Amino acid sequence: MNSTHAPRIAVVGAGLGGLACARVLQLHGRSVTVFEREASTGARSQGGSLDIHADTGQTALRAAGLLDRFRALSRPEGQEWRVLDPATATALPFPGPVHDEDSPEIDRGQLRGLLLESLAEGTVRWGRAVTGATPLGDGTWRLLLDDGTAEDADLVVGADGAWSHIRPALSDATPGYTGVTFIEAGFDDCDTRHPALARLVGNGTLLAKGDGNALFAQRNSNGHIRAYLAFRAPQDWHLAAGVELDDTAAVRTHLLKTFDGWDESLRYVLRHHDGGFVNRPLFVLPAPHTWEHVPGITLLGDAAHLMPPVGLGANLAMLDGVDLAHALITESGIEEAVRAYENLMLPRSAEAALGCAEALDNLLPPTGS
């Protein structure tokens, strides 16, 4: 990119997509600042395990110069899938790979750590929560922060997730509830403390699908298993059920009724998990989600194309970040770069979002289907 001065590039959000963008920019000698509302890298749990696909996530990591380090951390054995009959827990035929055959697993926190470690010191400004962006009239933008300060930028990249504070500058779309809720439960030191569950899950992911509900259980690193109990219900299902979400015993009782008739080896995840349950209603952006180009600002990852969590979101976010960085490196200016990136990303994400919506409906068909 040709410019009389180094463009001020502000990435809002230190998730996988924003960090991938920053990493590739720095590899090519470009300056970038990442604003992150969390206080530090370990401020909260980063979630479960991700399968990183050869044609998306691995492509991004290769461009970032991190593929070999990813391979060293990843778990190829985690690609294993087991499909069980909910009533008997007996194995059912597996239709084939969920994605491509080279999609090793890695904990999201490990992958984020790999990206963070690759950045120059001080790239991420922790504890800097961006609340919005205001145009300055010349194609540049002012970031508004929750401490009352502001930062100006030639390009603002909204990489701040589902509830993006940057998206309103481009689109009035907001995430809508899918009608599906996941309830998360965790198990630590499974091989020792929960050996029966560890054997049932195996090295990768277990899936049991009932009539209107489903169970995923997924092996993470360090002997941890995360389980997700999925069902269709109103977003406020707990109110109709008379259940307080922080009342673990009451949630358990309700879920045992919801999963009545399931084999007890599968209902183990309801009876013996470590800690409380976490309520995770699934939200998505309209599919396709597009916007008219606006100079000096764009979106990537969930901020641009929030879709059901069926294995594509993290991969696409990293690919978005790399594609945007490459455009900024190769095009003649910010305007040309952002247009080139959006012309590539928007059709790709539209196709992916529609596919993910179909996958969710196949897993849990809408009422009346």
Automatic annotation (TrEMBL):
Q: What is its main location?
A: cytoplasm
Where on this chain does NADPH bind?
R44
Q: Which residues bind FAD?
A: D51, R108, D302
What is the top EC class of this enzyme, as a single word? oxidoreductase
Q: Could you say which cofactors this protein requires?
A: FAD
Keywords, sorted A to Z: Cytoplasm, FAD, Flavoprotein, Monooxygenase, NADP, Nucleotide-binding, Oxidoreductase
All copies of the FAD-binding domain together span: 9-217, 297-330
Q: Which SUPFAM superfamilies match?
A: FAD/NAD(P)-binding domain
GO biological process annotation, one example: response to antibiotic
This protein's source sits in the domain of life called Bacteria
Residue intervals passing through the bilayer: none
**What catalytic activity does the UniProt entry give for this protein?**
a tetracycline + NADPH + O2 + H(+) = an 11a-hydroxytetracycline + NADP(+) + H2O
User: Which Gene Ontology molecular-function terms are recorded?
Assistant: FAD binding; monooxygenase activity
- HAMAP family listed in its UniProt record: TetX_monooxygenase (MF_00845)
Q: What is known of its domains?
A: Consists of an N-terminal FAD-binding domain with a Rossman fold and a C-terminal substrate-binding domain.
Complex and partners: Monomer.
- Function statement: An FAD-requiring monooxygenase active on some tetracycline antibiotic derivatives, which leads to their inactivation. Hydroxylates carbon 11a of tetracycline and some analogs.
For this entry, the protein name equals Flavin-dependent monooxygenase
Q: Which organism is it from?
A: Streptomyces kasugaensis
